[in-house]
Design a protein that fits this description.
Blueprint lengths: L2 E7 L2 E7 L8 E7 L2 E13 L8 E7 L20 H14 L9 E11 L6 H15 L9 E8 L2 E4 L3 H6 L2 E7 L4 E11 L1 H29 L13 H10 L2 H8 L4 H18 L4 H5 L1 H20 L14 E5 L7 E7 L2 E11 L4 E2 L9 E2 L1 E6 L16 H14 L11 E11 L4 H15 L9 E9 L6 E5 L3 H6 L2 E7 L4 E8 L6 H26 L13 E6 L5 H5 L4 H10 L2 E4 L4 E6 L2 H15 L7 E10 L2 E7 L2 E6 L20 E9 L5 E4 L9
Parallel strand pairs: 5-6, 16-17, 27-29
Antiparallel strand pairs: 1-2, 2-3, 3-4, 4-6, 7-8, 7-9, 9-10, 10-21, 11-12, 12-13, 13-17, 14-15, 18-19, 18-20, 20-21, 22-24, 23-24, 25-26, 25-28, 26-27, 28-29
Helix pairs in contact: 1-2, 1-10, 6-9, 10-11, 15-16
Length: 698
């Protein structure tokens, strides 16, 4: 039965149609926010997937180019693989939803969001986040929701909820907050060094808006919600736990996991599994879930050690950071390089500089974002965790980590006018045991400085973890979590920033939300850790950006010309600019505003290109000295090319002091001579003289 529901959200109308389309999905919400339209569906398989020990949730965000009146590029003329924005949006939808499904649920669930039209002032990403929450809440899929999501901007010190396209362009913050009825369940942010207290205020202002949306969703569920279906639980039998504890005591398990070396810990657990497999060799049912049982046993042991005994697996204090190291210039000939090590997490970052023409072009639904000049890429090879598997290119996790580090560093980059380069940094994971994305931020910051990029400030990142007990007051926040504390803990709260404030946040949790005291403590801890990392480690490796780019980096000279003269420099079909490039070997980029960037490695040739462009765009005045090449000889004189596409004439009477009968007596084709400008002749041609060039002319 078709029903429609509406509410006013941040000054625009949000409408949800239920029962209008996609009736065979378990739940479907046809979302309209302004003129933005997204179809969100939630579907689940009838039976659990066999042989897995995790919840198989997949989230899709499909960008249809017809949504913005475009035909896709390429030969196929249809949408291909998901864009980076689509992948990042899918991850943001996934993070607050996943913890609210039952932990022992093994049915495949797909949340699909198809963007069908885009109103630039009503974010399709936000609409999809709300749509997935509503579609799942009204479906028969077990789900402890609903959730609601709000975006927050910061303009002139004031918060703006679900900002419009124009507001997003001038905002100092792009914050996304998802909430349940009681708590904050997801935070994602990019910010221009926003102070910690302002960020906390923004998070909980968004949380208040989310409560209005949840009340709206509750109304929809009350009228259209299906009864949740029963499912086959995949929980580990209690009798198996009891049998395991008779063979491996809690003290033995604690001893196995209590080490600061990941390989040693893994070897200890492997030994325990071998012993248990031998003991349960006759019980196939137990063997099928033994891996999950050992995982749960480890988890309970680690959580008890941390929460009750305040003991971390590697013996660190609760606020202690693992051993740190930093260095620059470890890779020769590249434009900039740095390595950052934190315990068993090690990142090498390499920076490459190029002309602005090599900035990445983007083809997506956001008309305001068509290119980006800073790219951060993150790679995670299997050897970094001691495993072996073939490389298949970056997955969603790698793309997400790269985007997080990129977001953290964009606020400190110089403008194109200050530093007219495209910039790419690549983080290679050499070793991983927790929070490689934050190590990437530290390594990238140093790599940029080593490359001579005049960033405004160093940026550091760190992650906090969490272990909770039975009540909201029973918890402990951990500074600098390693892999084991991430796997078995409840939170991975990543914060990056400068000394002035926060530039990026990403929060993943496995529980049903965080209280304000937990969020405040985590943000305070990360600030304290960032200051230590920047002052005591990074600054000792490189304290400030180098004054110039390195020997092997391209050099760029930037000049400004009258935009109306751009056509003169480019020439018909690019003939003039290509002639300059061929003659000097440089690369030339010209913006619509008349900013000309000349890029090369030979300083003399770069200056020659500058001189040629200046000649082309300068109005010709009597008395100016030029160097020209004879390109044509006539009875009455010679024609000279003094810049690509620019010609003038020397009359036979102006070639030599003495009278000559034939031009060829003095000049031949290809001769290069100095001339002085005499202005324009009656035919409008530029007129030159060779004989009147001053002796001291340069």
């Amino acid at each position: 039965m078709y029903k429609s529901f509406s509410m006013e959200l941040a000054g625009r109308t949000l409408t949800v149609d239920v029962g209008r389309v996609a009736a065979q999905a378990n739940g479907a919400a046809f979302m309209h926010y302004g003129d933005t339209t997204v179809l969100s569906t939630a579907t689940a398989s009838e039976k659990p997937r066999e042989g897995i020990d995790f919840f198989p949730l997949s989230v899709e965000y499909e960008e249809k180019m017809y949504a913005v009146g475009k035909i896709p590029g390429g030969f196929n003329k249809r949408e291909g693989k998901a864009s980076e924005n689509a992948i990042l949006t899918s991850r943001v939808i996934d993070r607050p939803m996943r913890p609210l499904f039952p932990k022992d649920y093994r049915n495949d669930v797909t949340l699909n969001n198809m963007v069908m039209s885009v109103d630039p002032d009503c974010s399709p990403e936000l609409t999809a986040m709300l749509g997935s929450a509503i579609a799942t809440a009204i479906s028969d899929i077990p789900f402890d929701g609903p959730t609601a999501t709000t975006q927050v901007g910061l303009i002139d010190g004031e918060f703006v909820f679900n900002p419009t396209s124009a507001q997003r362009q001038v905002s100092d913050m792009a914050l996304t907050v998802a909430s349940t009825r009681e708590k904050v369940i997801m935070i994602e942010a990019g910010a221009n060094e926003v102070p910690e207290d302002k960020m906390i205020e923004a998070i909980f202002a968004a949380h208040e808006v989310n409560q209005q949306v949840i009340a709206f969703i509750d109304k929809i569920v009350a009228e259209c919600g299906k009864e949740k279906h029963s499912y086959e639980s995949c929980a580990v039998p209690e009798e198996l736990f009891a049998a395991i504890k008779e063979i491996v005591t809690p003290e033995q398990m604690e001893e196995a996991v209590f080490t600061d070396d990941k390989q040693t810990r893994e070897a200890n657990i492997r030994e325990i599994k071998d012993k248990l497999e031998e003991a349960f060799a006759e019980n196939e049912e137990w063997l099928a879930v033994l891996d999950e049982a050992v995982y749960q046993y480890q988890k309970k042991t680690v959580r008890k050690m941390i929460l009750k005994d305040h003991k971390r697996p590697d013996g660190r204090a609760i606020t202690q950071i693992r051993p740190l190291a930093a260095e620059v210039d470890l890779i020769p000939r590249v434009h900039g390089s740095a390595m950052f090590t934190r315990g068993q997490t090690q990142i090498c970052n390499v920076c490459t500089l190029a002309p602005l023409s090599e900035a990445q072009r983007l083809d997506g639904l956001d008309e305001n974002v068509i290119s980006k000049r800073y790219m951060h890429h993150y790679n995670f090879p299997s050897y970094s965790v001691g495993e072996t598997k073939p490389s298949r290119g970056p997955g969603r996790r790698e793309i997400g980590h790269g985007a997080l580090a990129e977001r953290a560093l964009v606020p400190v980059l110089p403008s194109e006018e200050e530093f007219p380069y495209a910039i790419r940094t690549v983080s290679e994971t050499f070793e991983s045991n927790g929070s490689t994305s934050q190590a990437s931020i530290c390594a990238s910051s140093m790599s940029l400085m080593a490359a001579g990029v005049p960033i405004k400030s160093a940026v550091a990142g760190i992650s906090c973890g969490l272990v909770t007990g039975e009540s909201d007051d029973d918890y402990i926040v951990l500074t600098d979590i390693q892999g084991l504390e991430d796997f078995f803990g409840d939170m991975d709260f990543k914060v990056a920033g400068t000394k002035k404030g926060i530039t990026a946040i990403q929060m993943d949790i496995k529980i049903h939300g965080l209280t304000r005291p937990i969020i405040e403590e985590a943000i305070a801890r990360t600030r304290e850790a960032r200051m230590y990392i920047m002052d005591e480690v990074m600054a000792k490796a490189i304290a400030e950006p180098r004054k110039s780019v390195g020997e092997y980096a391209p050099k760029i000279i930037q000049i400004k010309i009258d935009p109306e003269k751009i056509g003169d420099v480019v020439g018909q079909r690019g003939k003039t600019i290509n002639a300059i490039i061929e003659e000097t070997g440089v690369k030339i980029d010209i913006s619509d505003e008349g900013a000309v960037s000349i890029c090369g490695t030979d300083a003399a040739m770069m200056q020659k290109a500058v001189d040629l462009i200046n000649i082309i765009v300068t109005d010709y005045e009597q008395g100016q000295i030029y160097t020209g090449k004879v390109i044509s000889i006539k009875e009455f004189g010679a024609f000279l090319e003094f810049a690509p596409g620019k010609e003038g004439m020397v009359h036979i009477s102006k070639i030599a002091k003495e009278r000559i009968n034939h031009v060829e007596d003095v000049l031949t084709l290809g001769d290069v001579v100095k001339v002085v400008c005499l202005g324009k002749d009656k035919m409008g041609r530029i007129s030159f003289s060779i004989k009147d060039v001053p002796k001291d002319a340069k």
